[in-house]
Every structure is written in structure tokens, then in C-alpha cells.
Amino acid sequence: MAKKVHAAPGRPGRAAVKTDRRARAIVAASTAAAALVVVTATAGGAVAQGGTAGSHAPRRIGAAPRVPAGATVTGTTASGTTLHLSVNLAPRDPQALADFVTAVSTPGNAQYHHYLAKGQFASVFGPAPATIAGVSRALKAAGLAPGKVSPDGLSIPVTATAAQASHAFGTGFRNVRLKDGTTDYLNTSAPSLPANVASSVTGIVGLSSVNTISSHHSAVRRASRHSSATASVPGRGAHTVTPHTYTPALCADFTGSGLTDGTDYYSPGKLAGAYGMTNSATAGAGQTVAVFELENVDAGSIAAYQSCVGTSTSVSTVYVDTTAGAGAPATDGSVGVESALDIEDLIGLVPGAAVIDYQGPDAASATDQNVLDVYQRMVTDDQAQVISTSWGECEAVESSATASAENTVFAEAAAQGQSVVAASGDDGSSDCYRATGSTAKAVDDPASQPYVTGVGGTTMTTSGSTTTQTTWGNADGGTGGGVSSRWAPVVYQGGVATTSKRAVPDVSALADPADGYPIYFQDDSQSADPVPGIIGGTSGAAPTWAAAIVQANAGTACQAGGPVGFLNNALYKAARSSYPTNFWDVTSGNNSVYAGGYTAAAGYDEVTGLGSPKEAGLTTALCAAKGTAATGASTFHPLSSPKRLLDTRNGTGWGLSSIPTTKPLVAGGTAPVKVEGAGGIPSSGVTAVVLNLTVTGTTGAGSVIAWADGTSKPSTSNLDWTGASQTIAASATVKVAGDGVVDLYTSSTTHLIADVQGYYTSGTTGSKYTALTPARLLDTRSKVGIPTTSKISNAVISLKARGHGGVPTAATSVVLNLTATQTVGGGYLEAYPEGATRPTASNVNWSATGTTIPNLVVVPIGSDGNVSIYVHGTSHVIADVSGYFSTSGSAFQTVTPLRLLDTRQTTALGAGKTLALQISGRDAIPSTGVKAVVLTVTVTGTTGSGYLTAWADGGSRPTASNLNWAQGRTIANQVIVPVGSDGKVDFYTNSTTNVIADVAGYVS
Fold first, then answer.
1. What are phi and psi of 370, to 5 degrees?
2. How far apart are CA 363 and CA 785, in angstroms?
3. What pLDDT digit, counting tens, does each position of 813-869 carry?
4. In the chain, pLDDT over 70 holds for what percent of residues?
């Protein structure tokens, strides 16, 4: 991910230097080749997408880069041009890595803060040695000389000429002149490798030298009340850093400048006070923080700042792809300013910490490979608990190979317990403006990366004891923010950022240069000594948040429970539970710098994210002790009437704790639902919850998946629908995580409702389950349980439960499969104890005439032994009993959801046929002693109207049904099925259909 340095208006920029350097390099290469050779894919390397059949047939990896907007093709690349590449490998199990990161960063998970040890990543998640060897052999066979694999096993370095790379990867190269005059090269096709190794490669970085990386800071202004615009020193980007004042405070260079602390700038002490951070010379003691830089830093400026604030912070440098003394000197008032801001801000706020400057080649000449090398070194060294970067480029310009490689490196950091914060940029909502001239909405990388905390910017003013904060945004610059074009919605933003993809930023801090950060920098044209100045940009906000994390890590809570690590899961969890206790909500302003952008509002927004830190509350949230999920044999507690935990239509359980939202759950989005402590459910000890899930206002076909928060999303489903404008419900028994939360994912945008019917606890105070041979208690079509064959319209049915269908007088709750059929218009069913107040939550929903729809319900039995079923609208109603709860019976055990059956992978279940499914011994289900199993059964690909019946293998097929459907529908329903003595259950259908069965738990 290489990025260009852009100069502030009014002074020549570094881009001109880069243009000259790149142009000379390309000319030199062509001269060495004696004549310009057209570099195209050779006959042996050229392949079509997919290539020829066979394990060694070439296969393309990723996509070819696009010529940037405003650029022109100037010819082919010289064959002798040297390319420094990395072949990036996928982790051995990417999903296992993602699951591990979720577990160690989710409060309540048993693995919370149990990170990998230093150097452990390669052996646990890195590619297998055989994979690395196979890719290396393929590279050698293609005529390349692969280097030693990286310590984490994720990349193999390769140095090659353009001609060699063209032959090896089946791609040509061409030169392009960018809009700023820079001459670069890029590959014309996606690279290819033999199919037997291509699947192990995520991308090849370095095939393109097009780069637009820049720092995110403003121009520097002299620390003087009378400094003029002509005295301004151009910055190289747009990031503002605010220092943290402590004792001793800033020296006379600032206090005697005529500028006012808290108005014209923020000293470290004033900034720390505003954000509730510790103001001490030992703040951050014992911690290490690393900064990412692509320039030299002036040691004299750092020393001047330390002298000014009275610190002796340890600052060291690690050189990556460069050496000490290489590159442009930090003496012109431009080079070294970003580094000074990052390092000096950290010195001011956490003077007790050690700072490591990871320095790569100058941004003017750095390539994507150089950028990736620096990040990878910061992570594989694993010396710093917190990593701060104030450099970035717009997503649209960055290659997919680079983005993918970065993503894996940042996941590695998260697995090791390293926090990564990144400035969100200073071009408002138009992050690509300076790279391509586009004013379209765009966000910055790496701030948009899923495993990175993106930091936006604010304007802050203090008057007396009152400090106010608004969005930083004006004609000169503004906080970057918006919606990613690359990354899917992330689980941690569920219900907070209801956007179609990852939203940026996550948080914010001071960035406005008008009241920015005091620094020292070197400008030989002004003085032989370091010059005091004031600077801004999100480049200041990022290290400020890094300092807040360092202080949290240094506190007693994190010292006992482990460093913060990847903080977004805990950040958003804290916001959902007690907003804005842990955050300073920024509610005014916008980031419309070059075009209409986003506007700040109460709660989360794509301008300042969740807001700025309130250190005390934030430390409590980020360093919380891990929870422990309740486990073991469980008993059931029915609710007297269902309680609504989530309704996206009106904001119930949706959004921040104090600021609900009424937006639907977007396709690919996740809704975290707090279970423990809500709706009359205990605050601890809950193993599972029985939910009635309803989708309404659907926008197309889709499905809902429910699972325990902080664990892997299963490849199962709980509710399915086939089109737009539907309302449909299904019951689900869901395992509850240690944080008391369950997650609900939808594949299609829809409103979602979750009503709790009851819950299981690990104690013995609840009811136990007894399975019955399913029996029909009610069928209004044929006078079963009711003296009529008429459809029911807006009326209550009294259904006798105790003493019927095998339900004894001691039963406290009954499990019914309710079905509405031959419906007229839209409507719903509600089941509740007879004699109780009718609830506001429904159990079965339909939205059209002629619908047949079932749902499993658990209903407490009224004192008269009956349950009531209210019909809203007009429909026939069927009720089949499958079991009951009482003080005797068997306990329930949860399992991780798993798909046990999917006939789509084999052959559909034919009309009139029976299928036996093995239950005992599958997943975590024991091989003996299982009396019943809880399944979500789905029919899809239905060929006509029909029904499905489930029962214990070896028994007689009952006359009751579990699922009913009309032709062409996909219907899911939860069933609790007795298990035969051979550990099997049977499925029968009277109409050919595919059948899917997902397990949620069992009774034993």
C-alpha cells in the first residue's frame, strides 16, 4: 500500500521529487536493456481466467489494478525494471484465525485476552510448512528466486525484473503518468500461478508502483500570535495530533508566545484533562507504543520537545527497507513533521512509555511492498502493545492484494493482543480527492480495515471549566469518514452503524489545526534550531487515542486481565450498554470539504464515530474481567408472556443504549441482542434462550442465523424467506455467551423482531422436558379440539392442554407446533396462558392470502389447564403437541449449532419417502442417553404443497406435522423430536423437497 505525499498549497511538494526519481529509474532500466523492450505476457505465462484443466493449470489471483482516475498510459515498462515483490499466503485456516480474534477480543468469552505468545502465530495460524514449500517450488519453477519466508509465514519475498515477473505471473506491465506528474508502472492482468498453489496465495504485492500514501497532518504554523500566513510551513498530509500536558507543563516557547492554551492550541496537560486521562510524568510506565513512519525524523526536534515538557521518554528507531541516514533529511519544515507530531504527542501524553519509530523508505519513493513490510515488521516484532499510524491512502486506489495482505497482518496483531489505531484522513468524505481529483465519497486505508480502529477528528475549545467539541471540517480540511467500498459490515458495529459496509471512523479526537498540537520541528530556512509550532489533522488524533489505550493498558485492571488488544468489539459493546458514559459524543458539524459529506448527530456517525474518549469509563470497559458462560445440564424457565428484546422498527434493543435507531438490519449485518438482565431474564447463569424471531418488510429472499456472541457464526439458519414484503416468524433456541448476548445475522435487508419465550439456566430450579409422540390437539378444518370447521377471524380459541395428547396435570408449559393455513389477507397468532393478559408479541405471522406457515411455541399452561390462541385476521389453525415441561423429566444441553443434514448435497427427499437421521454421537451429542433433540428443520426447493413429520426412529409415524408449505416456498421451523433407541430420528414428507436439519441442543 504505497501512498504519495501531497504538499500543502503555496509551496513545491514532495510529489515533484518523486516524479523525477521514478522517471530516472525507469529510463535507467531501459538504457541498461539497450533498447526499450515491450514487456507483455509471454506465451508460456499468458493464461485465461481459470486456464486449462489440471492441478498445474495457471489460475489468476485477484484482479488487475485499474489505471487511476486522471492518469494516462505512456507506454510499456522496461524489461529490466527491478520489482521488489511479496507473494502473500493465506493463514492455514482463515476462519479459525477470525474466530480466535473474536474470542480473545470479546468480553465474556472464556478466551478473552488470552492472546498468542510472541512468535507463536506461525505455528498456530501460519501456512503449513508444506504449503510454503509448495509455493516456493512453483516460484522457482517459474524462473524466480524466492527469499526466506517471513517470521509469521505469511509472505515470501521475491526480487525480479519486469520481464521475469511477466513470464512467471502471466502479466504485462505498462507505465502511467498520474495527474500530479508522477510516472509509475502497473501490471496489465491479474497475476497467475499454478492452480495447485494459487489457492494458498491471497495476492502478490509490488507488481504496481502506483502509490498515493500520505500522512494526515495540516500545515504547521509558528507558535506566535503574530505569525503570518507566509510563515506557515506546508504539511505533507492531513492528520492532527494533540499533546497531553502534565507536570512540568510546556515551556515559554509556547506559554510566552501570546497564544492561549485551550484556545489556540492544547498542551498535553490541557488535552489530558479534557479526555480524563492521567496527567503524570510516569503515565504509561511499563508500556511500549510504536509509530509507523515513511520519513526521517529530526532527533533534535524530539530532544527540544522533551526539554520543553521535562521528559526523558525512551525513543528508538527500527529501520525497515531503509537505513539510518538514507532518504531526505528532516530539515526543510516538511520532512519529519509527521514523525515529530506522532512521537511528541505520545511523549506528552504517556511520557512513561517507550516509543519505537518503525521507519520505512521516504513516502515519495515507497511502494506498496515497503508499506506492507513496515506493518508486518511492527507486528512480527511484537514489541509494542499499541501501534499508531497517521499515514494512509484512499481505498479506491489501493490494490486488492495489498488490502488483503494488510488485513491478515492486522488480524495477526489482534491475535497477539496488539491494538492498531489509524487516522481516518483529512479530506472529509472525499478521501480520494488529492490522489485522483474525485470528490466522490471514499474512506481511507488502513482506518477502514476491520481489525483497525479508525480515528477521526474534532475541533475543541475550552473556556474556563467548560470544554466544547464539534466536528473538524472546513474548506481547508476535515475529518475523514464514510462507508467502506471494500469491507462487509462488521459484527461489532451491528445496531450502531447501520450501513451496508464497514463504517469509518470508530472514534475521534482533537484534529483542528486552529487549536491543535504544540510540536517542535526543523526548518533550516527559518532557524538552525528546532522551531516551535502548532499543527493539526487526524494525524494527531490517532496517537492521542494510542495514548489513551496505553494508559488503559498500564492500569491495574488491564495489568491483571491483559492488554486491551483489538478494541473495537469492547468499544462498541460499551457503547451499546452505557452510551455516552464512556464516550464524549460529538453531535454537530460535518465533513463536507470538497463535496457533500456526512453530518454529525447524536450517537454514532460517519464523521466522528462514537466520539472522543472518557478515559475512566473507557478503561473500565476495555479492561473488564472476562465473563464465564454458563454450561451444563439446564432447566427451563418460561415467561408468563413473551418479552420483546429487539424490534428494529421502533428502536427496541437497537442502537446505542440512549440513542435507538429505526433503520432495518442491512444485508450481511448483525444485531447483537442483550439477553441476560433483559426482559425479566437473570443477569447471569443463562445457558440458552428461546426466541421467536420475526422478519418483516423484507426486501428479497434471505435467512437469519442466531448464535452466541463472541463465537464463530455457524453455517446454519433459523429463519428463511423467499421474497420481498414478507412477514414470517420462527422459533429458535440459542446458546448464550458469557457476555449474555446472542447475535442475529441476516443475509438480506429486513426489519427484525426478537421476542423471548423463556430461557434455560444451569441451575435446577426450572422445569425439565418430557418428549411426547406428536399429537394433534386442534384443527379448525376438521373439528379437532373445536366444534366448527369455519376459519377463525379475530377471535380467541381456548385449547385444552392438560389431560390431552399425553400432557399430564403436572405440566407447567406445553410445546406446540402452531400452523396457520388457508389464510385470508395478513394476520398473526398469539399463544398465551388462558386467563392471562394477551401479550403484544406474536408467534405466527403471515402477509398474504393462501399462506400456510408453522412455528414452534412454548406456552405456559393456565390455571384451568388451557392455553389461549388469539387469531388476528382470518385463518384455519392447527396445533400439534410434541412435549411438555414439568418438575420431572430430563435436562437440556446446548451445543454449538451444526448442520446435520442437507439433502441438496445428495438427493431430495421424495414424496411419501422417509429418511432416518443419526443424532446420537454427532457434534457434541453423546452416543447414548439422548431422549430428544432440538433441530431447526428447513424445506426448500419444494415441488408442491406439502408437509413434513418428524418422530423417533423405530416408532410409528404420527398424524401430526412439523412443517407445512405451499409450492415454491422455503420454510424453516424449530422442532423438538424424540430420539429413537438407535439414536436416530425420522423425517417423512408427502411432497418431494430438499430437507435441511441444524442442531441447537438435546435433552438427556
1. -60, -45
2. 79
3. 999 999 999 999 999 999 999 999 999 889 999 989 999 999 999 999 999 999 999
4. 92
Cα–chain-centroid distance for residue 985? 39
Rounded to whole angstroms, the Cα distance separating 174 from 68 reads 13
Tell me the C-alpha distance between 610 and 622, whole Å.
15
Cross-strand partners of 173: 187
Q: Report in angstroms the alpha-carbon separations of 176 from 19, 101, 179, 264, 436.
A: 11, 40, 10, 43, 13
Q: How far is Cα 498 from Cα 669, in angstroms, rounded to an integer?
A: 8
Residue keyed to cell 439422548: 930
SS3 411: helix
Q: How many CB atoms lie within 10 A of CB 235?
A: 32
Q: Which of 600, 174, 181, 214 is nearest to 433 (CA)?
A: 214
Single-letter residue type at 747 = S
- Separation of alpha carbons 975 and 1001, rounded Å: 11
Instruction: Give the model's pLDDT for residue 49.
Output: 40
Q: Which among 646, 643, 691 is positioned nearest to 839, based on CA atoms? A: 643
CB 696 within 8 A of CB 727: yes
DSSP SS3 for 125: coil
Question: Is residue 10 scored above 50 in pLDDT?
Answer: no
The DSSP code for 415 is: H
Has residue 45 got a pLDDT over 70? no
The residues, any chain, with a CB within 8 Å of residue 507's CB and separated by 6 or more, are 453, 454, 455, 456, 545, 571, 583, 608, 609, 610, 611, 612, 613
How many contiguous H segments (helices) and E segments (strands) does the chain have?
A: 17, 51
- Look up the pTM and report it: 0.89
Tell me 520's DSSP state.
E
Q: 572: which residues sit within 8 A by CB, 6+ positions away?
A: 492, 493, 494, 496, 610
Contacts of 991 (CB under 8 A, 6+ apart): 911, 942, 943, 944, 945, 946, 947
Q: What is the pLDDT of residues 515-572, one digit of tens each?
A: 999 999 999 999 999 999 999 999 999 999 999 999 999 999 999 989 999 999 999 9
Give CA–CA dist 609/485, Å, rounded.
17
What are the grid coordinates assigned to 937, written together? 428443520
